[in-house]
Design goal:
The structure is a homodimer. By secondary structure, chain A is of the alpha+beta class. Chain A is 42% helix and 20% strand. The first copy, chain A, binds a DNA duplex through helix 7.
DNA sequence: CGAGGGGTTGATCTCCTTCAACGGAGGTGG
DNA sequence: CCACCTCCGTTGAAGGAGATCAACCCCTCG
């Protein structure tokens, strides 16, 4: 109960407060949530699709993906989650998730009982609103992905995701918007963007050859961020990371 | 205030209650929400992207689409909304929407002030939870779309959407899961599915020639629903329309 | 009756997939 | 400590699903 990974709750609170104002009392309630920490190896599933859960997962460290799965077992990544992200806040109100979550790298995750989340949401309407708001932002990001995957050619899709991740990394101080660690394989990146790993590789090469960015050994280094953002038509407002 | 389109609130309440249990008192609170009804012609925008709104939109009649828009003006449909759908419940907690909404056919929409929605959500935690849950289901549907658009070839994407709309139409008694009115042009359907209208046309033809379904003059008639659902890998649970 | 939007079909082109091979880095066991 | 193994990245060649371009049709509405 509130063992290691103790940095995650403050991080989560900070993210909540980027989007919602909370009183000191409400902040304390969030910080005193009980939790237990779980360490996951690469490729370990955290939640399998259709499973009933009674806790939500807060990433303390590492990289976790949310995915859809068909009856045949094929998976499609629909979201990447980094430290400070509550992956499945949704499950508080939808305990039988339609999606699954899996660790892309060795990760530490805090499991927080639904009962506790529900309790503080009921006690503090502002917290309920903050949770609801975070779920709404999540939907907005997914809507952007639908548009992104459906609308543009491979290079621009890759560009868009790398812009998005940069902003999110920066918001939790895991790097800057143009330099950060992103431990996905080209295969996984392609899976999320509806591309084959072969084509992801070729497009990364073309971006590299044009001096726009490099992506080697999990390190993203965007050399020409304004160009990348403009070609991807990237507009960060949908992330709701610096508004109030 | 609560003029015509008066059937919409009961429809909305029924949909909420498919997913959440509410006491009589809570039900009354939902039904007595104030609203004013707006009639929209085809291709009229209801909310433009980036606009600040102080009301949410409940579809009473017609077909409304939610879309993403780039700086250049190109649009991508990310959701279809039918009677009983609260299109942008999200905007209660995110008043500056990142998306827009537009009428695909002549439609009637009830605008419900955020202040009122917020008020009943604060007064009744169960209603707050029901709203939050609906937002979570919306995210789940979007996640399915990400996977659907990214994963399968054109025929199967079309099949999947037609299965989805059938279930939703049936849930609000606008038809059956295999026969319903869906007033989108092939252009709009393609826009939502990342396909050109030309290719949508060809795929609909191939589905028709194989006796699986017809889609003429806005009327969807699925002749072989089991086959369609299985080829699209359609699993209706993500819609949360018959669970509790 | 004319105009315009949407549906239908054909021909060509292209972006991306598929298949296949090889290389490099890290990890493991002898 | 080195050999082996496996996963991932890299590159080439060929094939295909869907886009693009361009007609023509039908229906509706003014």
């Amino acid at each position: 109960v509130n063992q290691s990974g103790g940095h995650a709750l403050p991080l989560f609170l900070r993210r909540l407060m980027l989007r919602s104002a909370l009183t000191q009392q409400e902040q304390d309630a969030v910080l005193s949530l009980s939790s237990y920490s779980v360490k996951l190896m690469t490729r370990r599933d955290l939640v399998t699709p259709g499973e009933r859960v009674d806790y939500s997962c807060l990433v303390a460290d590492g990289l976790v993906a949310r995915f859809e799965q068909t009856a045949l077992g094929s998976r499609r990544i629909t979201a990447f989650h980094i430290a400070g992200d509550m992956i499945d806040l949704h499950s508080v109100v939808l305990p039988v998730a339609s999606w699954g979550t899996t660790a892309l790298t060795t990760s530490t995750v805090l499991k927080i009982p639904h009962a506790d989340l529900q309790e503080i949401a009921t006690r503090f309407p502002a917290i309920a609103r903050a949770f609801w708001r975070d779920t709404a932002v999540d939907a907005a990001v997914l809507a952007k992905w639908v548009a992104n995957v459906g609308q543009w050619e491979a290079r621009l899709r890759i560009a868009h995701v790398l812009c998005e991740m940069g902003r999110r990394m920066e918001a939790v101080r895991l790097g800057t918007r143009s330099q950060y660690r992103f431990s996905v394989t080209q295969e996984q990146l392609g899976n999320a963007l509806a591309l084959t790993s072969v084509h992801v590789n070729r497009m990364l090469r073309s971006l590299r050859e044009e001096g726009i960015l490099t992506f080697r050994r999990s390190e993203v280094d965007i050399r020409n961020l304004p160009l990348l953002e403009s070609m991807a038509n990237f507009d960060p407002t949908f992330l709701m990371l610096d508004t109030r």
